[in-house]
Amino acid sequence: MTLPWECREAFANRPGLNSTHLWLLGTGMHAKISAARGDLMFGVAIGIAILDRLCKLAVVRNMSLGQSIELVRGLIYITRVFNRGAAFGIMPGKTGVFTVVALVVILIIFGIKSRLGSAGKELNAALGLVLGGAFGNLYDRLTFGGVVDFIDIRVWPAVFNVADAAIVCGVLLFAIEVYRKAERA
């Protein structure tokens, strides 16, 4: 049996491998994941995950739980909430369930990506949005036992975060692209 660090050492001097390849080799995920430079899906996913993490850190470091800051009077607020449920506060207290769901979603995205290959930019961007959002919230669930939410639009029934918004936008973009491709066929 080859252990992850042995894979990393065996491939460390191969031309064309970058640090992302080596990290993936070190985790043992190299068989399914292509981390080629310039891959739109991974670029979007990494960007969303970083943006989500930075926003959550800013909120946690500068606001107390339940504190709200008005941005647009009566409409948009930054409100710090700790959510142990799903996106938008659905099914509170089910952190374990949604941790498993996030892992399954991530695996499904890698499966879709491997079948689509170099599909259109829109599909890759959509998968990247969902992947980045899933990673962002999964990190919180594994690290803190729940998710930091802070985007509070008062006409919407729940507080959410960048990862939630990315997931919703990614699913919508994916559905639109699948519909458009079906119409063309």
Task: Tell me about this structure.
With about 180 residues, this protein is mostly helical. The chain folds into two domains: about 1-35, no CATH class; about 40-185, no CATH class. About 60% of the residues lie in helices and about 10% in strands. The chain is built from six helices and three strands, in the order αααββααβα. It has helices at about 5-10, 20-25, 40-60, 95-115, 120-145, 160-185; strands at about 70, 75-85, 145-155. Strands 1-2-3 form a three-stranded antiparallel beta sheet. Strand 1 (about 70) and strand 2 form a beta hairpin. The longest helix is centred in the last third of the chain and has 24 residues, at about 120-145.
Strand order of the largest sheet: 1-2-3
So what's the overall shape? globular
Distance between the termini: 46 Å
- Supply the number of helical segments: 6
Largest sheet: 3 strands, antiparallel
Please give the share of residues in helix: 55-70%
Spans of at least 5 consecutive residues with low confidence:
1-12, 17-38
- Going by helix content, strand content and strand pairing, the class is mainly alpha
Strand content: 5-15%
Mean pLDDT: 79
Strands, total number: 3
